[in-house]
Design brief:
The structure is a single chain. By secondary structure, this protein is α/β, with parallel strands linked by helices. It has helices spanning about 25-30, 65-70, and strands at about 1-5, 5, 10, 40-45, 50, 55-60. The protein has one domain. About 25% of the residues lie in helices and about 25% in strands. The strands form two sheets. The protein has a four-stranded mixed β-sheet with strand order 3-4-6-5, with helices on one face. Strands 1-2 form a two-stranded antiparallel sheet. The radius of gyration is 11 Å and the shape is globular.
């Protein structure tokens, strides 16, 4: 996605348990597009919203909240 602050990558994973491998793609994106990335998010198969320092993590049924977060430029 694009936001006022730059690109906003969103990774989608089927797993219900968050693990560090989920973030490999996002970290790579941040390296490639250095300085042009705003918010970032992860959609996963779990059930809890998990705002973190680097990413906003939401379950699939809460994807609209992630989009609103990105659009707000957080």
């Amino acid at each position: 996605m694009e936001s006022d602050r730059g690109y906003a990558p969103v990774e989608i994973k089927a797993g219900a348990t968050i693990n560090e491998d989920f973030f490999k793609g996002l970290r790579h994106f941040f390296k490639v597009f250095r300085g042009r990335v705003g918010s970032a998010g992860l959609v996963y198969g779990g059930s809890d919203i998990q705002p973190r320092t680097e990413w906003f993590i939401v379950p699939a049924f809460e994807t609209a909240k992630l989009i609103r977060f990105i659009e707000a430029g957080k």
